[in-house]
């Protein structure tokens, strides 16, 4: 069976996230692929909002010349929330692999 290809509409950040999720966690079922696509779309949207904020600043002036939060701040926040929700729904095992129980060696605790 061929590995699934990322949706064509994804941008660079979304495509990279989609490919990593699908390959590292062996996602092949329809629901998992849909959630990976949602996470990737949110990553793209968040990147777009971050670019606008970097370009214009987090605060902009409204039509009366008063400072207000950049509208992209809301988009960034909502996209991050959607990304985290999709990742949570995927129920990925994100616990690092360990050789045994207890703290990692050299942690200095």
Give the overall silhouette. elongated
User: What structural category arises from helix and sheet content?
Assistant: mainly alpha
- How far from one another are the termini? 47 Å
Catalogue the unreliable spans: none
Mean pLDDT: 89
Helix content: 55-70%
Number of helices: 3
- Biggest sheet layout: 2 strands, antiparallel
Number of discrete domains: 1
Radius of gyration equals 19 Å
Secondary-structure element pattern, one letter each: HHEEH
Task: Name the descriptors.
mainly alpha, 3 helices, two-stranded antiparallel ribbon, 109 residues
Write the layout of secondary structure elements.
Elements: H1 12-24, H2 30-56, E1 59-61, E2 67-69, H3 71-90
Antiparallel strand pairs: 1-2
Helix pairs in contact: 1-2, 2-3
Overview of the molecule:
This protein is mostly helical and 109 residues long. It has one domain. The protein has helices at residues 12-24, 30-56, 71-90, and strands spanning 59-61, 67-69. A two-stranded antiparallel sheet has the order 1-2. A hairpin with a 5-residue loop joins strand 1 (59-61) and strand 2 (67-69). Helix 2 (30-56) packs antiparallel against helix 3. The longest helix has 27 residues, at 30-56. The radius of gyration is 19 Å and the shape is elongated. The mean pLDDT is 89.
């Amino acid at each position: 069976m061929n590995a699934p290809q990322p949706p064509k509409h994804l941008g660079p950040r979304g495509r990279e996230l989609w490919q990593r999720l699908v390959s590292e966690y062996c996602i092949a079922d329809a629901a998992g692929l849909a959630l990976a696509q949602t996470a990737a779309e949110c990553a793209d949207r968040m990147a777009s909002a971050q670019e606008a904020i970097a370009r214009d600043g987090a605060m902009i002036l409204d039509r009366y010349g008063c400072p207000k939060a950049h509208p992209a701040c809301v988009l960034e926040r909502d996209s991050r929330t959607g990304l985290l929700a999709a990742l949570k729904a995927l129920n990925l095992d994100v616990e690092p692999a360990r050789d045994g129980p207890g703290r990692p060696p050299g942690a200095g605790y």
